[in-house]
Amino acid sequence: MYYDPVETMDRNKLEKLQLVRLKETIANAKATPFYAEQLADISPEDLTSIKDISRLPFTTKDDLRSQYPYGMLTRSLDDFVRLHASSGTTGTPTAVFYTQKDLDTWADLMARCMFACGCRKSDVLQNMSGYGLFTGGLGIHYGSERLGMLTVPAGAGNTKRQIKLIRDFNVSVLHIIPSFALYFAQKVQEEGFDVRDMPWQIALIGAEPHTEEARRKIEKMMHIKAYNSYGLSEMNGPGVAFECTYQNGMHVWEDSYIVEIINPKTGKHVEEGEIGELVMTTLTREGMPIIRYRTRDLTRFVPGQCQCGRTHRRIDRIAGRADDMMILKGVNIYPMQIEQCLMSMPEVGQNYLIELVTEGVTDQLKVKVEIKDEYFVEDMRVLQGLQKRIAKNLCNEILLTPRVELCQHDSIPKNEGKAVRVMDSRKK
Amino acid sequence: MYYDPVETMDRNKLEKLQLVRLKETIANAKATPFYAEQLADISPEDLTSIKDISRLPFTTKDDLRSQYPYGMLTRSLDDFVRLHASSGTTGTPTAVFYTQKDLDTWADLMARCMFACGCRKSDVLQNMSGYGLFTGGLGIHYGSERLGMLTVPAGAGNTKRQIKLIRDFNVSVLHIIPSFALYFAQKVQEEGFDVRDMPWQIALIGAEPHTEEARRKIEKMMHIKAYNSYGLSEMNGPGVAFECTYQNGMHVWEDSYIVEIINPKTGKHVEEGEIGELVMTTLTREGMPIIRYRTRDLTRFVPGQCQCGRTHRRIDRIAGRADDMMILKGVNIYPMQIEQCLMSMPEVGQNYLIELVTEGVTDQLKVKVEIKDEYFVEDMRVLQGLQKRIAKNLCNEILLTPRVELCQHDSIPKNEGKAVRVMDSRKK
Ligand SMILES: [Zn+2]
Ligand SMILES: [Zn+2]
C-alpha cells in the first residue's frame, strides 16, 4: 500500500522525471535576483542527464542570509501565503516562503511520509510539538489532516492534559520530540497508567537528531513503534525523508528532491555508501526553489533495495554536522561515527574522548573509552580482548585503526558537566 | 468590495436560504444519537418559516458534556480530520469535531471576516496568538491563508522577536489579544521605535471580551485600527461575527448561522434591540451540527442597516454572561450595561459597586461610584449635578433610576485586590 504511485516508480523513469523537473526548476529559479546571477551561464537545455547537476553551483546558508528577506522569491509577494523564519533575534535570520501550491505539495509529501510508516485515515494523531515559526508543528498538522487522520492540535507541554486527550480520543499516533518521549513515558506511569494499555501505536520522533539506541529505548519504554524522519525548513520542513515500516533508513522523496552526498571539503560526490554532506535540490517548489543546498548534515545512502518496494533511495540517520569532520591521514572521520560504534557495544559506558595527537612526524587518533563498572574486571587478558574488539569495530567504521585506551567510569574530565568529545592537539 | 456575494443578499432571499439550510441541518442532525432523541417529534417539513425555529429545543453546554466525546457526530469518526477541545483536565470537557469540508467552510467564513475589516491578499498577517487546542490560533491562521495573505505564524510570546518579524516582513495586520496589545505598544516604544513608523494598519482583537474604551485606547496607543470579532468553539471558533470598517457592531454570517436573542429566564425572544442571551444554530456544518445553542453570552441586535451594504445583521459587543443577569422590579439588568455606562463618563474612576437591597417592601438598586480626585470638588452643587447625570445616563441604559452615591477614589472595599462589583442583599 502506497500513498502515491510515484513511490514505486521505476528508477529510470524517476530519473527522467527528475531531469524534467530540474530543468523547470532552473528556468523558474532564474526569475529570482539571486539565481539570475548564479545561473547566468546555465541554460536548462544544457542538462542532458541528472548527473549534470554537478555543474550547478551550490547554495549555502550564507547565500540565504544574504538574500533575506525576498531575494530568493520567483514571484510577487502577493502570491505567498506563509513564511517560516529562523527564530533568532540577533544576526541575519533566514526565511522560507510558501505559495498555496507549495503548501499543498508539502502537505502531500508529509501525508506520504506518515502513510509510509503505517498511518491511515482511520488513525487519530496527537501533535505534541509546538506550532508557530518552527516548521515541525504546522508541517505535521497539515500532513495529518491531508492524510485524513483525526488531528488533535495539543501543542507542547501540559503532560496531564496530553495523557487525558490521548485516552479520551483513542490517540494512535503521536508526534513527539524524542528528548521528551522518555520523560513522558515515565509521567504516564506516575499517573498510574500502564503504557501497554495506552491506545498509541506509532510515534513520529524526527524533530531532533537521536541515536538508534535512543529510538529503541523509546520503543521499549513507551511500548510503541517509533519512526525517524528528516527535514529542514529550507526544504519546506519535515516531509523530506521518512522511515517506512522496515525502519532501515529514510526514503527521500526523489520526485520532489534531488539528493546528493558530497565530501564537504572538496564538494565532489562521495563513493556510494560513504558518509558525507547531504546536498538537496527542490524539484516541486514554485515560490522559492533552492538548488544544491548545502545542508551541513552528514549522512550516507543506505545501499540496496528496501523490502517495502519503494524505489526512492534511503539515507541513514544524521551522523552529525559537516563542520565536525576531521581529516586524518587523508581519511575523513566524523565524531558521530565513533560515537555510534562505541555506543553499540554493551561494555562501553557513557563517556569517551577522541584525541588527535602528533607523535614524531605522523598524526595519530587515540580513543579513550569509559568501561562500565561490571565489565572493568581485574583480568588483564579480558580487558585487552575488549580493547582489541573496540579497535577493530572502529576500524571497520572509519577505515583507520585508532589507539584505544580503556578507563574507569567517570574518569574522563567533564566541562561544565558535559563530556568533552574531541581534543585536537596536532601540530600544524 | 465583498469577499462573497452572499454578504449583500436580499434579506428575503437570505431567510429562504436559511430555511432550506435549517431543514437540511435538522435532517443531518437526526443522524446523531443526541438529536435523534431531541428531534424525534420534529420533521424538517414541519418548518414553513425561519420563525418556526422557536419550536426546536435548545442545546446547552451540559448537553455537549453529556455527549462527550462522540455523541454529537453525524458520521463515522474516520470522516473527521480535526478536533478542538476545552482545555481542562478535571470535569467533563467538551470537544468539537471538524470534517475536511467543515474546515473549508470555516476558513472561508474567517477569510470573509478579515476581508470585511479591510484585509486583502496583499496584506501580511502576523498571528500573535497561541496555536493548539484554542480555536483562535488555527482559526485565524487558516482564514488568513485562505484570503491569500502572507501569514507569519509567530505564536504567542517573545516580544522582541515579534517586533523584529513585524519590521522585517512589513506586517500590516496583527492578530493580537487585547490585554496584550497595550503592553506590546509600550514594549515597542521601549525598544526605541515609534508606533507611527510601524508597518501595521489593522489589529484583529476579538480573542477576549473588551470594552469600547479599551479598543479606542489600543487604537490610539498602537496607531492602528482595531476590529472586534465574535466566535466560540461550539460554532467553529472565530469567524462567527466580525466588524466591518464602520466599527459599529459585528455582522453575523446569517447564511451559516441562525442567530436569536432570548430572555435567559423565559427562553422567549427579546424585543428587537433589547439585551439577551445569544442563541446560535449552525447551518453549514456537516460533521457536528448544533441547534439553538445557548451561548450564555449577552448581546443585542444593532438596529438599522449598516452603511457598508452588508445585509447580515449586527450584534453588539458582548455585554457579559447570562448568568450575571439580575431581575429587579421585573426588569432585566446586566452588570456590564452599568459598567459600560459608567466608564463612558470621564469623571468616573476605576471602581463601582452595584447593590440590590430591600427597603420596606420594595427592592432597590443602589450604585456606588468612585469619582476621580480631580472631579471630587468641595462644591456640593457640582457633585449633586454629577450625581444626577450619572443616574440619568444609567436610567437611559437600564430603564430604571438607581440611587447613585458618589465616593472618593479607593473607598470601595476590594476582595483580594479585585473590586467586588455586585452585592445582592435583598430579602427573598
Ligand atoms: Zn522502505
Ligand atoms: Zn457593515
Automatic annotation (TrEMBL), chains A, B:
GO MF annotation terms: nucleotide binding; phenylacetate-CoA ligase activity
GO biological process: phenylacetate catabolic process
The AMP-dependent synthetase/ligase domain, residue ranges: 75-280
InterPro entries: Adenylate-forming_Reductase, AMP-bd_C_sf, AMP-dep_Lig_C, AMP-dep_synth/lig_dom, ANL_N_sf, PA_CoA_ligase
Alphabetized Gene3D superfamilies for the sequence: 3.30.300.30, N-terminal domain of ligase-like (3.40.50.12780)
EC number(s) recorded for this UniProt protein: 6.2.1.30
Origin superkingdom: Bacteria
Pathway the protein acts in: Aromatic compound metabolism; phenylacetate degradation
Pfam family, one: AMP-binding_C_2
Top-level EC class as recorded in UniProt: ligase
Domain AMP-dependent ligase C-terminal residues, every copy: 330-426
Keywords of the record: Ligase, Nucleotide-binding, Phosphopantetheine, Phosphoprotein
The family this protein is said to belong to: Belongs to the phenylacetyl-CoA ligase family.
Quaternary organization: Monomer.
Protein name, UniProt field: Phenylacetate-coenzyme A ligase
Organism name: Pseudodesulfovibrio piezophilus (strain DSM 21447 / JCM 15486 / C1TLV30)
